[in-house]
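Page 42, continued from yesterday. The earlier attempt failed because a stray header line got pasted into the input along with the sequence. Redoing it now with the clean sequence only.
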Amino acid sequence: MANDMEQPIDLEPLLKSRLAWDLLPHDQMREWMEKLGLTPPNKDVEAMEHREAHGRANLVRPISRLVDAYVAQISEIQAAYLGEHSEASEEQLEAFTEDAFLLGRASTLAVLVEFLADGILVYGPELVQGIIEIQEEEEEDED
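This time it went through. Structure tokens are written below.
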């Protein structure tokens, strides 16, 4: 018989918190934690989560332009489909395309960031070498 003390850990708040850090403005996180039903962390933990969010964001930086290109095309396709199946005006479709791009980009990057950070996805050797070269160039620029 399993020990009653061995309750499964609910990882949903941790995932929601990480995704919030990946998606929302960092200077508004305390406010957003409460809005999302999460307990805002103390200042030390908040600083650590902030640093970790920036570290995760750096993981996806090498492919962010590629993501932008795909999401732009997806947004245009979605707007064309919406235009065929709704009474939306051209102005509304343009606004939809812009909003779809912003939401699609943020969502795609957040999922990729989490998958890369958790090791679910990894970059191929050629891209890893490119990342190392970019980091070395940035370090040289800082000197």
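Notes: Residues 12-142 form one domain.
Reminder to self: strip header lines before submitting.
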